[in-house]
Amino acid sequence: MKKTMTIIAMFVVLLLTVSANTGGEFSVAEGIKAPHFEVKASDGTTVSPSDMQGRFVIVNFWASRDAGSRMAANLYEQYVESAGDERIGLVSVNFDDNQKLFREIVRRDGLKNESQFNVEPQCKSDIIRKYSLESGMKSYLLDRNGVIVAVNPTIEQIALLTK
């Protein structure tokens, strides 16, 4: 009887642990449709990765304080530009609180305004939660249907998956 109760108790603990993790990494894994979000462009229009349906889309989240994510923003931008291919789009979302800093980095790093967006304060927590960015910035490659095909993709993965 004691053994049965122990097994039931362990099962209940396991079940509670799994069900408590509803907003974590599992919601943005490969094979899952990317969560919807919108960011404002400098001209006031809104942009979303779903606007680029029919194309592969690199969704890159970065912040100036995170050197790796800032380097990824540069790398992805250079790749998309050098590919010169309309099949691949880029939505690069910056999380800096300071608009001036964001604009200066975009200018200094030679990034294109059309693909770089600074997220508004009221949208930050929603995007962070949806894309599990609590522990750091990430990037995603979406297929033509908006399904995540790679997390933190390398240029080689992007080239291979978008052929």
Question: What is the string of helix and strand elements?
Answer: HEEEHEHEHEEH
Number of E-type strands = 7
SSE-based structural type: alpha/beta
**What would the principal axes of the Cα set say about the shape?**
globular
Beta-strand fraction estimate: 15-25%
Helix content: 25-40%
Arithmetic mean of pLDDT? 85
Architecture overview:
The chain is an alpha/beta fold and 163 residues long. The strands form 2 sheets. A 5-stranded mixed sheet has the order 5-4-3-6-7. Helix 2 links the parallel strand 3 (56-62) and strand 4. The chain contains 5 helices and 7 strands. The chain starts with a helix and ends with a helix.
Write a short abstract of this structure.
The protein has 163 residues and is α/β, with parallel strands linked by helices. The chain has helices at residues 2-20, 67-83, 99-109, 121-130, 155-161; strands at residues 39-40, 46-47, 56-62, 88-94, 116-118, 139-142, 148-151.
Characteristic key phrases:
five-stranded mixed beta sheet; alpha/beta; 5 helices; two-stranded antiparallel ribbon; 7 strands; 39% helix; 163 residues
What order do the helices and strands come in, and which of them pair?
Layout: H1 2-20, E1 39-40, E2 46-47, E3 56-62, H2 67-83, E4 88-94, H3 99-109, E5 116-118, H4 121-130, E6 139-142, E7 148-151, H5 155-161
Parallel strand pairs: 3-4, 4-5
Antiparallel strand pairs: 1-2, 3-6, 6-7
